[in-house]
Design brief:
Shape: globular
Largest sheet: none
Number of helices: 5
Structural class: mainly alpha
Helix content: 55-70%
Order of helices and strands: HHHHH
Length: 109
């Protein structure tokens, strides 16, 4: 879950803000009918990187694959934006994880 590391490290306000921001970004992407890529093989390296970016959001990715249409709607005007939103949310979550790790190690206040 985005922000859970900050809550565990004793910064619940910061963790809640990250949860809200990244959850909203990912949720908007899903609402724009993004395609939630399944983990695939090495035959499509770019698709594998896009999938890794989406999976990095964690639990929201699993819930969205289970509850929403994972294929998306390519004819929808927001399809490409939705894909980008979901991928960026996952990549930002990686930065949030690294920030929580630095905070827990005491290297950052």
């Amino acid at each position: 879950m985005p922000g859970a590391g900050h809550v565990y490290a004793g910064r619940p306000g910061r963790g809640l803000r990250f949860l809200m921001a990244l959850g909203l970004l990912f949720g908007l992407g899903v609402a724009m009918h993004a395609r939630l890529l399944p983990p695939g093989g090495l035959e499509d390296p770019l698709g594998l990187l896009r999938c890794a970016a989406q999976v990095a959001i964690g639990l929201p990715y699993g819930l969205a694959r289970w509850l929403a249409d994972p294929m998306g709607l390519p004819m929808d005007p927001g399809y490409d934006y939705g894909n980008t939103f979901t991928e960026v949310a996952g990549l930002l979550n990686v930065l949030v994880i690294l920030d929580a790790w630095d905070t827990a190690r005491g290297r950052r206040a």
